[in-house]
Amino acid sequence: MTQRMTLINSPCYVPEIKLEKIDSMQELFSKPQPLSLEIGCGIGDFIVQLATRHPQQNFIAIDIFNQGCDKTCRRLDDAGVSNVRVLRTEARSLLLRHIKAQSLHALYINCPDPWPKKRHRKRRLVNSEFLKIALYCLEEGGHFHFCTDFVDYGIETSELLMAEAGFDNCHDQPYVHELGDYPISKYMRRFLKRGQPIYYCHYQRQPGYVAAPPPPPKKGFRLRWAQET
Ligand SMILES: C[S@@+](CC[C@H](N)C(=O)[O-])C[C@H]1O[C@@H](n2cnc3c(N)ncnc32)[C@H](O)[C@@H]1O
Whose CA is nearest to atom 14 of ligand 1? Predict the structure, then answer.
């Protein structure tokens, strides 16, 4: 799908090319603070709530869609939130190329594209390979948050998390439907309104767990969208 590209003029926005010129994500912020990442920020309602609650943390919000990044930046600017940087980039590419081992305090994935058709399931973001990358990037005790309204995506991800040696479950069941004070995103709100339960997984990287470095990205790994920038 071709994207309509909007020029984003926001102090929150970081063009992906800038990542080639820095050593650490912390250089994107005015002061070093624990760093968290939201993958697939959509229109930004989740990150605005989260970052407002945690001014002592830095956040990166990413999405592959320029329009989503634009809306996220506008919301952050309107709310006067200054501890978030927004990037239009692909999740695995960012994690593998630019996020250092044990540098993330938390990783958030809310309502990722479900790819409901069986033959498309391999396109889902979260799988065993992705969880190994996430483990590598999370600090000891770092938090992994995942939620979806898709029953089989929720169950499958919770099973993968339970099977992955480096994760501890923060709940007493593989997934829960109660969200507590977890901020609600646009898609979560939509599904909750329809009475559909959210499958929420919250796990932590085990202290002392040694995560193997993930294999480097394959040649030709960058997706076609990246060439449009
Ligand atoms: C279904 S929407 C959910 C948006 C938001 N998280 C919410 O809950 O309202 C999924 C979002 O993830 C983005 N996305 C999908 N695959 C991605 C990837 N590999 N890397 C970064 N963003 C991705 C899409 O562009 C889309 O905005």
Answer: 40
